[in-house]
Amino acid sequence: MIIPSVFKNFICLEGIDGSGKSTQIAALEDLFKSKGLEVLKIREPGGTEISEAVRKILLDPAHKGKMNDITELLLYNAARSQLIHEVIKPALEKGVAVLADRFAYSTLAYQGYGRGLNIDMIKNLLRITCGNFFPNKTFILDIDVSLSRERQQKDKARGKADRIEQEKNDFFERVAQGYRTIAKENPENCILLNAANPPEDIFKLLAAHLDG
Q1: What are the tens digits of pLDDT across the range 92-113?
Q2: Among 14, 46, 127, 152, who pairs with 55 as Cys (CB 3.0-4.6 Å)?
Q3: Structural Rg of the chain based on CA atoms
Q4: Which domain holds residue 150?
Q5: What is the DSSP letter of 61?
């Protein structure tokens, strides 16, 4: 585990695009609200004025082939640091349940395994960025890149592919394998789920792990 997990109701969904994170977060929101909890949903990068501005820079297709990998790494963590300071920390300290669509393990998967940056360097940076504000449970939705692409093509609500989405399949293969490695190395707070299964079956497993 990268950072100590001290907030029970800080839950994260990870996985490449098309894995069904949004569907499961919506179901989790309903579950937490049924238990009388206030819920805050966040997505990365973004969530504050500063973080959204950084998001635009990171995902702008005009920057494809121009942005240095270290620049990308630092920008993601700058956006995350602002989100933690401005939104996540106050919410958790008030007892609000926080549901995250991506968090620190995304950086490890995409910039570490995907880009090939040094894993230990990234872990150290994440410790600085996140401190104690790290998900208690991270559910990684594992999906084949081919199925991910197929689902994205069927999603008519999606607009033009952003800078990251325009990467080739071999990049996403490395990211997907990276997520599997992360789950294997962090069994105490990471659960790998087969995203090819029906959403209702995935949620049953997810909910069971929260109760355990």
Answers
A1: 999 999 999 999 999 999 999 9
A2: 46
A3: 16
A4: 7-211
A5: G
